[in-house]
Design brief:
heterodimer; A: alpha+beta; three-stranded antiparallel beta sheet; B: alpha+beta; 2 domains; four-stranded antiparallel beta sheet; 12 helices; about 40% helix; globular
């Protein structure tokens, strides 16, 4: 369950705001909830490692929006999403909550799976374009060697 | 000393109003949209995010528009906004080995697992103006090729295996955060890397160039340069596990430098490291060269007095917001200061004239 939840929360967090909004609005899902924490814009500090494997250091910050809510049935949804869209944070938290309820099949089919496909297509595009720029350098033997 | 002046409000308002009008330019030309900036001036946006030290494309595009394309002014705006944000937490260190690479090259080995991929680069172009771009609505489409989704291990890890490359060990030290505590000298490599990662590209470029020309001799090879998308993982306390909260583009550069060895260590290659937000390879490369030059003490090398070896000089001057703030403030009214200078020089001259007559 935790692995699955990690996966959908990650997907929602990194999805394109307009993709998520479009998918959500298409389904016209009506759901009642109360805020536990209204959407809040902030940042996190991204860290790297010196020389890939060494000690940590701070690179810079990334904007993040978070919120928490509770459905009428009592299920709690959280979101931490990239960017400054309160709407994206709200829909993500709703999806997170609904994915833990009987609605999970519907949300999975109409929102999670389409977002996964968009993400996979984007990655495919980058990797296949990069592959087309793969180069085979060869060194020439210099004339003076014999 | 700066003494406040009063007045000039109307003039200031009118000056700003004229600036806004000029920013809009000729109104018969369409207004530039933020989408246009973030999609078509991507490298400018990346520079503003990296030196503004805040990864947010929309805000960087807005800052570029607001600053009329003055990138240092745009960086200033982003830095100022950054200070208003609540800091939720620190991410887990990014795993650049899992990067979805747009570009990945090595100047030290030609055959590397995963291959050399040039990506969207200006390298090997002829630097001739392309008049085809004058024609509007051109939609270039680049080729694709079927790929094997195999791993791209870091090139320098192969040298590690033979112990030819100094290992970068994780000693579990907590990094300094220069946005939370002021830097004091001597400082740590973690503080230096953070300062360099958001440092001014032009300043770092000039300093890195100086090391190549012989000021702090450290002949560098580009072991690897990679640009791509990485996940930012964050521990969520209310859930008790980590999720990916963001995907960002990073440029990473590892240089290979000779190390003569010391009394306790045999000769070995060492590394300079650059890691920067966005597609910013000139900056990442410069950062790696300077990181290596600044490591002289730790590696027991000689201090040759070169600027790039002097951490206080490098770190306290690489921040373009600090630099421009102090530089540009001298444009503001200093009438009282100057008045005292004026009176002083008059008095000295009068005394000198009396003495000369004697």
């Amino acid at each position: 369950m935790i692995e699955k939840r990690k996966s959908w929360m990650s997907l929602l967090a990194t999805s394109n705001q307009s993709d998520l909004l479009n998918l959500w609005e298409q389904k016209k899902i009506k759901v009642n909830y109360v805020w536990l924490r209204t959407p809040e814009i902030g940042s996190i500090m991204a860290q790297g490692r010196m020389g890939v494997t060494g000690d940590k250091f701070n690179i810079g910050e990334v904007t993040i929006t978070r919120c928490s809510l509770k459905l009428n049935c009592g299920t709690i949804g959280h979101s931490y999403v990239q960017g400054r869209s309160k709407k994206k944070a709200e829909i993500s938290a709703l999806c997170d909550a609904l994915m833990q309820t009987k609605m999970s099949k519907e949300i999975n089919k109409n929102i999670i799976i389409p977002l996964e496909k968009i993400k996979k297509d984007n990655k495919d595009k980058i990797l296949s374009k990069a592959e087309a720029t793969k180069v085979d350098f060869f060194t020439l033997v210099r004339g003076e060697s014999d | 000393m700066y003494v406040a002046v009063k007045g000039g409000e109307v003039a200031i308002d009118n000056a700003h109003s004229w600036m806004s009008e000029i920013r809009r330019g000729d109104t018969s030309i369409p207004n530039i949209s933020l989408d246009q900036i973030s999609e078509q001036l991507t490298l400018g946006v990346d520079r503003v995010m990296s030196e503004g030290s805040l990864y947010d494309k929309d805000l960087a595009a807005l800052a570029i528009k607001q600053s009329r394309g003055d990138l240092i002014e745009a960086i200033f705006l982003l830095r100022a906004y950054r200070t208003t944000l609540t800091r939720f937490s620190y991410s887990k260190p990014v795993n650049t080995a899992n990067m979805t690479c747009l570009r990945r090259i090595s100047a030290t080995f030609k055959d590397i697992p995963g291959g050399q991929k040039l990506g969207p680069t200006f390298d090997y172009t002829h630097r001739l103006l392309d008049f085809k771009l004058l024609a509007e609505n051109e939609v270039p489409i680049s080729p694709t090729k079927k790929y094997n989704d195999n791993k791209m291990p870091h090139v320098l890890s192969f040298l590690n295996q033979e112990d030819l490359m100094q290992d970068e060990k994780d000693n579990n030290l907590d990094p300094i955060d220069i946005t939370r505590e002021p830097i004091s000298y001597p400082t740590s490599r973690s503080a230096r890397l953070q300062a360099l990662s958001r440092g001014d590209e032009g300043f770092l470029l000039g300093l890195a160039y100086s090391t190549q020309r012989g000021y702090a001799r450290n002949h560098a090879f580009v072991g690897e340069l990679r640009i791509g998308i990485v996940d930012i993982e964050l521990y969520i306390p209310e859930l008790g596990f980590e999720i990916n909260v963001a995907e960002i583009i990073l440029t990473e550069c590892e240089t290979v430098n000779q190390f003569q060895g010391s009394k306790i260590e045999p000769p070995q290659f060492t590394r300079g490291y650059g890691l920067v937000f966005g597609q910013t390879e000139r900056k990442a490369l410069a950062m790696a060269l300077i990181d290596r030059a600044l490591r002289w003490k730790e590696l027991g090398e000689d201090y040759s007095g070169a600027p790039a070896q002097d951490e206080e000089f490098v770190i306290s001057h690489c921040d373009n917001i600090q630099a421009t703030g102090f530089l540009e403030h001298i444009k503001l009214p200093h009438y009282v200061d100057f008045q005292s200078e004026l009176e002083l020089i008059r008095k000295i001259r009068a005394d000198a004239k009396v003495n000369m007559k004697r």
